């Protein structure tokens, strides 16, 4: 029995998959998008209830469609983002099949393309584009044993304060997710401990411009590689409550106890590193450096943007920073829950081709895999700093689609008789 034939198969129906679909269509490449759940499913079911986008609506979107229900300077809710992508799929007539999971992809022997096994039958595909994104497998460090006492969950499983048992909460991770969850819990009346590691801390806005604009005009979105040693540094920024700059001193002022990076768990006690003050200082330096660059850009270009000297007023370090908690007896402190805002790992177990390094990371250049015919899209730093953001993945997808179209042209030539390739000879 013959399998369905597909020229290009896009695996994943989120922002990366839809961006690929649009550009493949523009390049005239027949294709199919398979999504195991719903379009933009992670925005619907793997985010907390109050989450909003971290960039304003004028920035965090595709060029071809504005948010219909969000003002340009506001921050879309998770459901508005999911609805946006569903509408976009309709706008571009993306050939998406939902509820179909890809279980394996293997290269054909002796002929081009790949054998694709799915929950809805098998396919043959000439090209395969992995558009499943970076948020595939939640990572919880093996520090506190399961069943040791507190309820433990990853930030992707957190929904709202009422979900957690009564008592104090330890939030581990000081990126956007960790700080927003910690603040929400504190505003709900919970006692909160926030474990702070190395981070970048850009201003939400400065001199009447959002940080997304500043990163654009300063060329930072286009950086092709992260600074040495900063490959996995988190970014603390928030669109919550209309958008505001993350300020760890202000979080402490709300009553959140800041602690250093989470260490070992022994006998019901959790230890924390002595790096809290250093991490706060490094975040401040990152913040102030961006203000300096912004001021220099304003002066260099003669822009009439209001000065904002108050943005440089950091205030004194709170007591939890100057005299940090280095060990916490969880039971004695009443900690009933731990929320691990510790990121994700990729999972390409379904993609059974020679496209990965010894650590399971894709080997590629701008999404073009070392395995011919396989592509990646939507990953952090795929081509530049903006690659995993909504607008960035759209531009990356154009490059990948062009590459697919070029390779498709070469392959069509290899399947053309010699007399048609070179013309009749006298």
From TrEMBL:
Keywords: Oxidoreductase. InterPro entries: Auxin_biosynth/cation_transpt, FAD/NAD-bd_sf. GO terms for molecular function: flavin adenine dinucleotide binding; monooxygenase activity. Pfam families: Pyr_redox_3 (PF13738). This is Putative flavoprotein involved in K+ transport.
């Amino acid at each position: 029995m013959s399998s369905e034939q597909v020229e290009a198969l896009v695996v994943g129906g989120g922002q990366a998959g839809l961006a690929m679909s649009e550009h493949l269509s523009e390049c005239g490449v027949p294709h199919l998008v398979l999504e195991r759940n719903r379009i933009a499913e992670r925005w619907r079911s793997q985010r907390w209830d109050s989450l909003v986008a971290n960039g304003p609506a004028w920035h965090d979107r595709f060029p071809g469609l504005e948010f219909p229900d969000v003002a340009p300077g506001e921050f879309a809710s998770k459901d508005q983002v999911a609805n946006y992508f569903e509408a976009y799929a309709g706008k571009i007539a993306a050939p998406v099949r939902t509820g179909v999971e890809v279980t394996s992809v293997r290269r054909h022997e002796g002929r081009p393309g790949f054998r694709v096994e799915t929950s809805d039958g098998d396919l043959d595909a000439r090209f395969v584009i992995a558009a499943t994104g970076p948020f595939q497998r939640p990572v919880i460090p093996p520090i506190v044993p399961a069943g040791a006492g507190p309820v433990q969950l990853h930030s992707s499983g957190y929904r709202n304060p009422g979900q957690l048992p009564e008592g104090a909460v330890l939030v581990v991770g000081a990126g956007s997710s960790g700080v927003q969850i910690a603040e929400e819990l504190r505003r709900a009346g919970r006692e909160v401990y926030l474990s702070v590691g190395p981070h970048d801390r850009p201003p939400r806005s400065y001199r009447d411009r959002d940080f997304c604009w500043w990163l654009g005009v300063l060329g930072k979105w286009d950086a092709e590689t992260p600074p040495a040693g900063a490959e996995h540094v988190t970014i603390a920024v928030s669109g919550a409550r209309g958008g505001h700059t993350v300020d760890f001193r202000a979080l402490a002022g709300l009553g959140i106890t800041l602690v250093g990076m989470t260490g070992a768990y022994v006998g019901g006690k959790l230890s924390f590193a002595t790096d809290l003050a250093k991490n706060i200082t490094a975040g401040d330096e990152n913040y102030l450096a961006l203000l300096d660059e912004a001021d220099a850009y304003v002066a260099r270009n003669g822009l009439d943007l209001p000065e904002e000297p108050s943005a440089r007023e950091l205030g004194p370090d709170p007591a939890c920073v100057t005299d940090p908690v280095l060990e916490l007896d969880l039971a004695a402190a009443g900690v009933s829950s731990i929320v691990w805002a510790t990121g994700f790992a990729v999972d390409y177990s379904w993609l059974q081709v020679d496209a990965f390094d010894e650590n399971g990371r894709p080997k590629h250049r701008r999404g073009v895999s070392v395995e011919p015919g396989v592509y990646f899209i939507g990953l952090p730093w795929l081509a530049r700093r903006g690659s995993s953001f909504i607008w960035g993945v759209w531009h990356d997808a154009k490059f990948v689609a062009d590459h697919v179209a070029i390779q498709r042209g070469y392959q069509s030539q290899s399947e053309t008789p010699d007399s048609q390739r070179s013309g009749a000879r006298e």
